[in-house]
Structures are given as structure tokens and as C-alpha cells.
Amino acid sequence: EEQRGAMEESVPPVTLLDYGAGNVQSVVNAILKLGVRVNYVQKPEDILAAERLVFPGVGAFGSCVAALRELGYFEPLQRYLLDDRPFFGICLGMQTLFEASEESPGVPGLGILPGKVMRFPHDLDLAVPNMGWNGVAPMLAHPWPLETPTPRYYFVHSYRVPMPPEGNADWALACSDYGGRFVCAVRRGNCVATQFHPEKSGNAGLELLNRWLTSIAPEKSLAVISGPPLAPPPPARRIIACLDVRSNDAGDLVVTKGDQYDVREANEVRNLGKPVALAERYYHEGADEVSFLNITAFRDLVLTDQPMLDMLRAAAAQVFVPLTVGGGIRAYVDKSGKTYSAVEVADAYFRAGADKISIGSDAVEAAQSFFANGKQLTGETSIETISKKYGRQAVVVSVDPRRVYVADPASTPHGCVELGSPGGTQPGPEGQRFAWYCCTIKGGREDSDMDVVQLVQAVEALGAGEILLNCIDRDGQCSGYELELIRQVKAACSLPVIASSGAGNPAHFAAALAPATASPSGGGADAALAAGIFHRREVPLEQVKLHLENEAGIPVRC
After folding, report:
1. Distances (CA, A) of 269 to 220, 261, 264, 536
2. Confidence of residue 331 (pLDDT cuts 50, 70, 90)
3. CB neighbours of 41 closer than 8 A, spacing ≥ 6?
4. Is 199 a catalytic residue?
5. Catalytic residue among 18, 64, 91, 191
């Protein structure tokens, strides 16, 4: 507290430009953690009055520019930047510095830097959005405010700034690699911006922000090109800690864990700890993300679920990696008859500190409507409305499938996988060598008529940005992930896939994350999630990462 007070006295306050989209609370929490006060832009004049300006942006390029113009912020922001005053842009806050974006044809950006923002190419077989911890390589001889060697930072984006035509430029501060190199940080005078999210990049991100806050940019004469950039380290696979949160019989929020979705033991809710304390523990142990699933009885009234929102605020103030929250994110009518939209529910979670929201049963209903409407978008589903406001990367779809065994794949219209391969899922109880995966709803209590391939293809079209792939048959069994299911989903869509359900030892994580082309075949997942084995300390999170890096040769964030 003394150090924080000293910082508040010695460092001028930061002015934050919030144009109404995205989780700015994460950025505010990071700056406050560093002991610096935050003011908010309330009117256009506040931009020009700022001593240091931070501009975090998410969502679509065109929507962002339109909001800036509607609020009267565009011209003052442009003037502030042309006057070479201290500025830090994050994600879309970096992209808007350029002349235009392929995402929004005909919409001019701020034009501070030359060039056009482009989508990741479709022909590179990449999971898009690029979501995870990527390596960064400096491109200028004086890399301030980056450090050397440069750690991995957290990225989440579908569009990127191409490398300069000459290979480097005096404004291109650093590059990263995802199917090819791209510019991931820029610096021109006092203007600094990053494609990655320092506020969600753990201690490395906090240290980067602290350097920007407490020191000044080098003179322009020091912005010299260092020659061809070094190769950035490869993207890391993510390890995610999941916390199922609900109220126990005494009304307290606890972390619990089910056995094939049953969370009761000896007629009481299984209590594995306090949510905020566990989230902090996983953050310090090196979790790349933390996911909360609200399975409490009153999740039907999310906007009145004050204990859950308070819990999320407390966690977001101390945990500086991405936070996902799910449970009850859909439109509903309260007891008084007032209707709330899915976006309003999502707004509450984002304002409390969530970076992503997870949609479950409502996604199945949205997918069913999508097919019933001849694969036409209505713009009215929860996935569409939330992704339109916050961006595709903010919407995770949680899938709860179970196996349906068949003897002959020709006997069902659903896409099947073959069972019985060495190390894979065994044939069914009657020797069936094939199965399809039925998507369930209501926490696995009811089956739908939809298979997992149909679901993921529909939600990708609707605007989802990531798939959280559970498996009811594997839940709590510690027998390994359902590799056949993971491979089927990865082949069916281009979204990042998080493997969930079944982890029991570090080798299970390696199998899920190994390429599908490996021998023996891996799952090819982009991330792997676990819950109970972490809560009970049966498998320490650090042990999983050491195994992946040193024995399986899979890159992770250390």
C-alpha cells in the first residue's frame, strides 16, 4: 500500500478512452494494481486534456471508428496523436492507428501509421481468432517499453498488421508469428500500441505497462532498425483451470466438481474451495486462463446474482490472465415481467471483469434455429448479438456431448467416428465400433437432436470465437480426453478448440494438444482445461507444463 501511494503521487493519472465496447475493467484493474489513478474520458475535451491516454479496443474496426465519431472522439484523438503525446493503444486500439482495415471496407482509420490491417489468410489452415500466448521479437534496436528477452504475451484477434514491404520500418516495434510474421507492436514517438493484451499477460504484461507509466519514450533518433528481426518463439498451447461455482446448502459460493455432472457427495454439494482464492492460486501457479462456470441455482436471474458478480469483480482485481464466465447467459424475463436481452446479461459479466463469456444450452437452440431458417442469420440470437457488440473473440460456446454408439455409420445421418484404435476410446458395450456425439442441454440432463459437427459449424457461422469441448462420458473419470471427439470438431470448423473432461495425468494433456498428424495421433486441440485434478492437487498445474515442455516438446508459457 505504501508503494502504491508513492506511485500515485509520483506518476500522473492515466486517462482511459472507453467508447462503450469490451472489458475496459481489465485495463483499469491492471493500472490500479500498479498504483496509478485512472480518469475516464467523459467528453471530447478530456482527450486533449489528458497527460497519458490509454485506448483499449475490441470488436470490429468499423464499429469502433463509428463509435469514436458518434461520441465526437475521433478528431480530438487524431489531434492528440499528431501532437505526439503519450499514448498506449491495445488490440483494436492499435489497429485503428492505421489507414484502413480489410474488416471494414471503406472505413478510414486514424491514419497515424501507413498501411492496411488484414485478416489472417484462409488458406493457412489456422484456427481463427488467433487466441493464446505468442512469442514476440523486437524489431527496433531500442525496444522500449518491451524488454529483452521478450516474454510471451496474450493475443486474441482475427486481423493483423502485415509486415512492412521492406521487412521493417521505424514504427514497427516488434513482430510475432502465426502462420507467418506480422507486426504486433508499434512505436512512433510517444505513441505506443500492442496487438496483444498486456493487462491479460500476467506479470510480464504488468511490467510492460509499468515501464510505459514510469519512463519516457526514447528520442526519435533512437528508433533505428536493428536489421532483420529474430524469429519469435512459437505460439504456446494454453492450460486452463476451470472452476464450477455454485451456492452450497448454506448459501455460500463454493467451487465444486461433478462426476459425470453430479456435484453432490453424501447428499451435500462437494466443496473444493473458495472461488477467488482458487483463481488467485491458479494465476500464481501459471494458469494461462481461468474459467468460471456459474452452476448455482439462481443463475436464471443473472442480473440479480450479486454474489456471483461480486466474486467475479474480486477475482478480476487480482488475476491478470483472461477470465471466462458462463452460466445463464441468455435472454430472460424476471419475476416482475421485465425482459432482459442476452447482451444485457453479457454486459453485466463484462463490466464485472470477464474477458469472455461462455454460452451453453442457448447455443444449441440458436444452432437449431439457424438450420430451421435455411442457414440464414437473423441477427437476433445471443451469439450474434453479443459477438456484434464485443467481437467474435469474446464468445465461447460450451458443448456438452455424449456418445451414441452405432454398429454401422450408415444407420444414422449423424457424423460418426471410429472407435477402438490403440490408446483411444474403446468400442461400445455391444462391440459397436462407431459413435456419434449427441449435444445435450441443461447441464447434460436432456438430449437434443443435434450432433456436435452440426453444432460447431452453426455457431461458427453465427459468430462464436471458440469452442469449449466437454465430454459427458469422460467427465470426472481421469481416463484422458476424448481424442476422437476433438479431432472430429477440429476438422469440422476453423475455431480454436479447448479440450475438456477426463484429464488424469500430464500425459493426457500432451495427447490432447499433440497434432492429429502425430504418431500416435493426438487431438490437435488449441488448449486443454481441467478442474478436479487441479483443485485436489492430484496433478499440479506446474507439473503439467513441465511435462509438455520437457517431455512432449509442446511449447507452453513458463
Report:
1. 61, 12, 4, 15
2. confident
3. 15, 16, 17, 18, 47, 50, 73
4. yes
5. 91
Based on its alpha-carbon atoms, the radius of gyration of the chain, rounded to whole angstroms, reads 23
Q: Compute how many other C-beta atoms are within 10 angstroms of the C-beta atom of residue 427.
A: 15
Q: Is 244 a catalytic residue?
A: yes
Closest CA to 527 of 289, 315, 205: 289
Residues 441-454 have pLDDT tens digits of 988 889 999 999 99
The predicted model gives 62-81 an average pLDDT of 96
* 416 among known catalytic residues: no
CB 472 within 8 A of CB 402: yes
- Residue linked to cell 516488434: 174
Question: What are the residue ranges of helices labelled H in 245-381?
Answer: 275-285, 306-316, 342-352, 361-372
Is the pLDDT confidence value at 518 over 90?
no
Asked about 475 being catalytic, the answer comes back as no
Residues in the chain: 558
Catalytic residue among 197, 414, 535, 547: 197
**Among 305, 355, 362, 400, which one carries the catalytic annotation?**
400
Q: Which of 18, 103, 177, 244 is catalytic?
A: 244
Which is catalytic among the residues 199, 451, 466, 482?
199
End-to-end Cα spacing for the chain: 29
Residue 435 contacts by C-beta under 8 Å, 6 or more apart in sequence?
Answer: 403, 404, 405, 406, 416, 417, 419, 425, 428, 484
Tens of pLDDT, residues 250-302: 667 888 765 544 555 656 656 778 899 999 999 999 999 999 988 764 455 55
Question: What predicted TM-score, i.e. pTM, was given to this entire model?
Answer: 0.92
Q: Which residues pair with 177 in a beta bridge?
A: 181
Helix (H, G, I), strand (E, B) or coil at 154: strand
Whether 197 is catalytic: yes
